[in-house]
Amino acid sequence: MYFRPAYALMAATALALAAPLPALAQARISIGIQQEPTSLDPTTDATAAINVMLTQNLYEGLTTVDQSGAVIPQLAESWTISDDSLTYVFNLVQGVTFHDGSPFSAADVVFSFERARAEDSGNPRRATFAPIESIAALDDHTVEIVLNNPDAFFLFDLAQGPASIVSEASAETNGTRPVGTGAFRFDAWTRGDRLRMIRNPDHRNADSVAMEVIEFRFISEPAAATAALMAGELDAFPGFPAPELVAQFEADPRFNVMVSSTEGEVILAMNNSREPFTDINFRRAISHAIDREEIIEGAMYGFGIPIGSFYPPHGPAHVDLTDRYALDHDAARALIAESGFDGRELVMRLPPFPYATRSGEIIQAQLAAVGLNVRIENVEWGFWLDEVFRNRNYDFSIIAHTSPNDLGNFARGPSYFYGYEDEAFVDLWNAIRTETDDDTRLEMLRQAQIHLADQAVHGFLFQLPAIGIFRQGVEGFWPSQPVLQLPLTEIAIN
Q1: CATH architecture group of domain 26-40+177-261+466-493
Q2: Predicted confidence (pLDDT) per residue in 464-480, tens digit
Q3: What percent of the chain has pLDDT over 90?
Q4: Which pTM was predicted?
Q5: In DSSP terms, which residues pair with 401 in a beta bridge?
Q6: Which CATH topology does 59-173 take?
Q7: Of the chain's two ends, which shows fewer C-beta atoms within 10 Å, N or C?
């Protein structure tokens, strides 16, 4: 089995993509993206594409991160933390305005976070705000947040899309006409086709932003993505959906290719609240039936790193658990029989992403080899969000979880779409979040990976690769993805 090294091409192109530029010849860029969101508000919708396009571009948070994943200031120019790690005082940047002209102040931070942590909140990462005991505006430019327990991920989580600072005046309409404080502002959204943003001339860093117009084209079909790049209709496709065509672009001098890993764990999700998945023997049988190497080779053409639990292989706490369940058809059949499964047809509902649809066909055949009849339903993204994510109406699905530090998904209880309830894991995750010693926390993260693998909560498949195709002259795209964002302020075309 041959896995494409995640960073082999990255190293060769990173310097070129980050080099200082001469006078620019183009101030408009067209970027391909696979997924079109159903909303443009990251504080109410979990769709990854919202964060990729808008977080830290149109919307801003108190903090952001650099290419290494280190937390740095954004709307908060500085902050202090009390000795007990419970009280944060944020000093806000002054003179900032929202795109509608209204001034940004501490009141907007209080509104945004109170809204996010409310009982009826629709925030996809409401758990981020659960540790907040109180939040107050000390004056127009100072916010104090008091936690009820230390939170090792708090500042990092404030850099994510769900923690974007929004204005009360526009919060209800951000889903279709987003208003933020970022360097780009919303211009138009043609559903099913494209989204356009334009440079915000009133942004505090506007003079350092090269692009005047950013246009995202929604193209999920690999053949269409390839044709658009070849025809010059796109300048970049940072999440290129056709790994089988990478060699073609590598050989074409018009393009640069960049391959790296992401924070995205691709899983064969199992509805743990529904029989037969309530039985651990059945879940373990699925893990014994899965051949990750065949999936990576067949669906991803060798791009991807196998995973045995829910944690990125490049992370500092990674434990290789890929041998926890050996490929063993006899063991799988025996466990299926022990679970008492009645042999009914199982349904695998797949979102419209090539990694999911291709992997699904391979896994369908792998499960048939151990006697399971699985019917595939390829569904639109909106349907997947409603029926799978919100209503848990599925047996199997395949999805990449692209947010960082998201082991906490398994502590969200049976209302989350996993349908997984495990008080032992909830206790472990709470201990991880509140542990301020790095070494101790890393060891706890290792324990969490082992626990989830032992419970066979899902079929853990592979870490999603980031395959980027860029026209020659396109500069500034990050060679790594420490967060689910695509910073645009550094991009230029010469």
Answers
A1: 3-Layer(aba) Sandwich (3.40)
A2: 998 999 999 999 998 87
A3: 85
A4: 0.83
A5: 265
A6: Dipeptide-binding Protein; domain 1 (3.90.76)
A7: N
